[in-house]
Amino acid sequence: MEPHHAILATAGHIDHGKSALVKALTGSDPDRLPEEKLRGITIDLGFAHLELPGHSLGIVDVPGHQDFVKNMVAGVGAVDLALLVVAADDGWMPQTEEHLQILSYLGATRGVVALTKADLVDDTSAREEEIRLQLQNSPLAEASIVPVSAHNGMGLEELKNALAAAAETMPPHTDDGQPRLAVDRVFTLQGIGTVVTGTLTGGTMNKGDTVTAHPPGRDTRIRTLQSHNRAQDTAQPGTRTALNLADAARGDLPRGATITLPALATTTRTLDVLLERSTRLGQECAPLRNDTRVRVHHGSGHWAARLVLVEGKTLDPGAAQLAQLRLEHSACVWPGDRIVIRNWPESATLAGGRVLDAQGNRQGLRSAPHKLFLQTRANAPESAESWIASQLARDGIARRAALLRPSNFSTGEIDAAVATLVEAKSALVVGDWIADGPRWKQARETMTKAVNAEHHAHPERPGLAMELLRPLAQKTFPSGDVFAELLEDLCQNGFKRQAKYITSLLHKPALPPNLRAAGEHIRQALAGADPPARKLLAGTSEGAQALRFLIEAGEVVEVSPELAIGAAQFNRFRMLLKNHLRTHSQSTASELRQALGTTRRILIPLLEKMDRDGITRRQGNVRVLRDEK
Predict the structure, then answer these.
(1) Mean pLDDT of 2-26
(2) Among 171, 185, 377, 471, which has the minimal tally of Cβ within 10 Å of its Cβ?
(3) Nearest residue to 113 (alpha-carbon basis) of 132, 98, 136, 137
(4) pLDDT (tens digit, 9 = 90+) per residue, 504-540?
(5) Average pLDDT of span 338-354
(6) How far apart are CA 131 and CA 145, in angstroms?
């Protein structure tokens, strides 16, 4: 049975034995830099691999020194399990606290506490009690505390068992078709080329796949890949993965770059977020002020940004606030991602947050609809249903295939949320779109009222011109062209298309009182076989309006600018013409005039219309029928 893959990250104060513990657990020394060997401290990220019953853990060992917290954050961006390390002789220290807060901001809720250097004290119970007290009101409040010694091996098996038990509580990583790798190491191998490593999340990557690296923001191809130091054709989500990228220069791919599929490689410079400051900061910590320049840590990278609070001027310890982060450089960030905010000098962690909208609007940040959109998401950060409803409430419409894509929500979660919203009539699927149910109903009612108002004001007209309906649809749904879908909905609910008009099925066109006399005069004039010239019918304003009504109502046929014929007479002429040509194959205009019993004044424009309508075709001086199908 394939083991479950997960990422374990260490955390804790400098010199509390994180790297020594990893080496004792795995046999691999995560300190790889010469300077680390020389100074005896971890400076950059180190990596190892631990196999437990049923679980395969990729380990990221982080530095504990305050000067290298930015490297620590880069290593825990996709952590599944935390291994918080506290030395039995030192106890809880400043970086222990800061690392715990960073883990909390990043959503690390599972882990184990390793009480290292336990061989240096006679009794660990007091220290364990102290640590348990410090863990209160944190995601690791119930974590196991295991005394261990990397020096003599004490407690290592108990620690492995505790890690395996914690891993059992994790939901398995799934392939959701949204693979993403945050690059935390880049190097070049002779004869192989550029290699990047990182933690793979959201889906699989395959040998030969075309992927996009941002930066630099261009496509490349995966030549080969390794997962947990073994060559693979496919890397699974939740694994430490190395990619050998074709045509990629090492200098173009910094730590913090994102590797993903081209369709998912959207970038942004404006993030709308819910920021929160830990209650553990204490009241002595300075408030976080509006319009502050900060560093935003995401994945394995960090970017300079300006912090803009949606309301208020400060964010105090223990408080949460909607905010916007205006990045100075573009980044590949998705809705639902977690971030950490540190101060500009990189000496303190200020806050953490969740991305509510990865394509923020700087101008509309404080508008009522957008604030409601953000607050709805902030109130239910794990609910795909709420996130979809918030988007539909704000925008009215969204492409179904692009709904929450990319994001931290799986396809199954999105499909289930859409089904629930549709069943509750909060949303409906229309063609390629999904629409807010109440707003769609409002749009349909608005268009219905507009058509009925036109019928009431102008009963002589067949309906309302579609070009006059389009602005109503655009006003209700400015973010998507769903006019055709709205028309289709109208036509399934008591309306029909008639040429360029939309008309109610209940509507019977009628001449208004002031045109009825002129209309009756035209009807009588066109009842015979020799209709008068059109200018005689429409010689007055009332006559012109009445004639136009009769044409649009189908009572009169507009043959040419000079000739109009009653519909019954026109249909009679067409039947006689077709019967004659079926019998004689072809006929001259003179022969057809005799067959129809009419004059040349009427026949010539009538034949020209028959040609335009595709009934006849002129061949020299004769007419023939077009092929009838």
Answers:
(1) 88
(2) 171
(3) 132
(4) 999 888 888 888 888 888 888 888 778 888 888 888 8
(5) 92
(6) 8
Instruction: Return contacts of 566-569, CB within 8 angstroms, 24+ apart.
Output: 566/523, 566/526, 566/527, 566/531, 569/526, 569/527, 569/528, 569/529, 569/531
- CA torsion sign for 327, 332, 336, 337 is negative
Torsion of CA 279, 377, 324, 478, to 10 degrees: -170
Query: Token pair for residue 272?
Result: 């709308």
Q: Is the pLDDT of residue 65 over 90?
A: no
Q: How far from each other are the two terminal CA atoms of the chain, in whole angstroms?
A: 65
Check if the beta carbon of residue 198 is closer than 8 Å to that of residue 241: yes
Radius of gyration of the chain (CA): 37
Angle at Cα 69 formed by Cα 67 and Cα 75, nearest 5°? 140
pLDDT band (50, 70, 90) for residue 34 = very low
Angle, in degrees to the nearest 10, between helices 437-457 and 483-491: 70
Contacts of 379 (CB under 8 A, 6+ apart): 386
d(CA 277, CA 343): 13
Beta strands, E only, 31-171 = 46-52, 55-61, 81-87, 111-116, 144-147
Residues 491-495: contacts with CB under 8 Å, at least 24 apart: 493/444, 493/448, 494/448, 495/448, 495/451
Is the dihedral angle over the CA atoms 597, 601, 606, 612 positive or is it negative? positive
- For residue 586, what are the β-bridge partners? 624
Q: Are 258 and 267 in contact (CB under 8 A)?
A: no
Q: Which domains does the chain have, with CATH numbers?
A: 4-168 (3.40.50.300), 180-264 (2.40.30.10), 268-368 (2.40.30.10), 382-510 (1.10.10.10), 518-625 (1.10.10.10)
Q: Which two tokens stand for residue 453?
A: 């108002």
3 state SS for 327-367: EEEEECCCCCCEEEEEECCCCCEEEEEEEEECCCCCCCCCC
- Is the confidence at residue 33, as pLDDT, over 50? no
Rounded Cα gap, residues 29 and 620, in angstroms: 96
Per residue in 384-426, pLDDT (tens digit) is 999 999 999 999 999 999 999 999 999 999 999 999 999 999 9
Q: In Å, how far are 5, 93, 151 from 227, measured between CA atoms?
A: 11, 35, 30
298: three-class secondary structure by DSSP? strand
CA distance 196 to 256: 11
Return d(Cα 345, Cα 343) in angstroms, integer.
Answer: 6
Q: How long is the chain? A: 629
- CB burial string 239-273: b at 16+ within 10 A, e below: bbbbbbbeebeeebbebbbbbbbeebbbbbbbbbb
β-pairing, 81-87 with 4-12? parallel
pLDDT the model gives residue 38: 45
pLDDT, tens digit, for every residue of 37-60? Answer: 444 444 457 888 999 999 999 888
Measured distance CA(297)–CA(72) in Å, rounded? 11
